[in-house]
Amino acid sequence: MIKIKNKEKDNRNLNNQKAIDIAFNIIAIFSIVLFCIAIAPKSFQNDTFYTIKIGQLIRKNGIDFQEHFSWISGLNYSYPHWLYDVITSFIYDYLGGYAGIYIATMVLSAFLGIALFKANKIICKNELISFFMTLVQIYLMGSYIAARAQLVTFILFVLEIIFIEKFLETGKYRYAIGLVILPILIANLHAAVFPFYFVLYLPYLGQYIVTLIIDAHIVHKIKNQYIKFSIRFYNNKLKKASKEDAKKFQKKLANCNKELEIEKEKFEKFLIKENDKLKEPYKIKIERNKNNKKLFFIMLLCTITGLLTPLRDIPYTYTIRTAMGNTMKNINEHLPLTLIENKPILIYMFVTLSLLIFTKVKVTLKDIFMLFGLILLAFMSRRQVSMLVLFGGMITTKIISDLLKMYDKEGTRDFISYLTTIFGEAILILFMFVISYAVYKNNIGADYIKTNTYPVEATKWIKENLDYKNIKLFNDYNYGSYLLLNDIPVFIDSRCDLYTPEFNGTYNKEKKKFEGKDIFSDYINTTSLSKYYEDTFKEYGITHVITKSKSKLNMLLSKDSNYDLIYKDENFKIYKRNVVD
Predict the structure, then answer these.
(1) Which end of the chain has the lower number of beta carbons within 10 A, N or C?
(2) Reported CATH class of domain 456-577
(3) What are the residues facing 430 on neighbouring strands?
(4) Element (H, E) at 506
């Protein structure tokens, strides 16, 4: 009777705990969605504008690998995120224009937050820590959340971690199917980041290889085989030896047999010690999982998924070609990370490494590989800071959760129970509304297009006063995409790959480099004044120049009698070039 009552009590407690978990997850997801919507920027980045136009072009003409928006002839375009372009242009044309794209960005931001919360829970097994750390990660991701293809691939990469972790945990093939579908989506939505899909496998693969090496016991096996070889050798010698030599070989044979027994005993003791260390490692845990081998084969299978796209070999070659060019040395997001200029990331790294080094928390070998690999990538390119925040943040979440468990075995159950009371829910929701509003207020009065960044009025003037389809306009990299959205042919825009020899030229095997039009370098050198502007303008036959009022180029053109100022506003000026080439 007592056992039945205790069982009923345990069932009631279990049901109560499930109800609390469900209630907390609902309020946590609501809060995360609220914060993600608030942090999504209303003002668009330059890539959004060309995305709309290219999507419209693909829907009309398909993918022809030709450039249609620059007035410079003979250029080829690789359409690296064609599917995202098509979807974005459809939203723009049929679902509300700029407002529709803004809403889509908020929805994708919310999906990223929910996926991140799910991934953190799977990894650290603590809902409360996962909730708060997800908010921190989304805050640090603020500058990377935009109406760009990268936002979709952030979500897909987080789903990749979820599927990997769940596959290793359960071995269920539905997660394996998900892992095969994801790279197909990435290859079509944002082919430039296709290789990173496999980078996320590397820590798991690295740990698997280490376990194979450790479990192989190579030194013991080599020594064992050497002793056995010696035994066979002396046995053969003994058969052919004289009586006098036989005693010598029998003695050596006995020594070898004894050595073999000693080695066996030593190895058995070693295995016992090793098993004890595996149960209670000092700092680094090496996880063994029977599904690791299957995961490796899934990764190999996924290497061919980049072929399931109309982009030919772009998923495989885009990153390599980009690295061969000079765009990564000049575009801000590709430059190396300077920590002093990014204080939130500096604080994050300091906190994470401090917890890792100065606490008793144990981490897995794959976490070490993942964390330090991501830190290395972040120092190589600022763009990869986003990956450090997303996936390094998951490891930090796990470390914090494990640290709290050392001092509170219940984890954070009491606090979660409090937050699911009416009073706790009210406090949390009010807090999230205040925080979200503080973030969102920057968007309240913002325009979709910043007039101090993009030549809105100047574009209207060009279309009304110039034969804009036939002029050869020299423009800035950062707002070329806005011009082409408005059907004005451009010299350059933020599709940097298009304007480099690596993408519009041919490969010279003898010189081991691509040869073609290096428009990007000409633009950089001209606007930085390291190249005389008139040389560039003469080479390309420039007829008009649009530049910012505060640019270096404007300072020179304003004093050049060969250039007539035909338009100006608060932020931009347009010059007509009066030189016959």
Answers:
(1) N
(2) alpha beta
(3) none
(4) strand 506-508
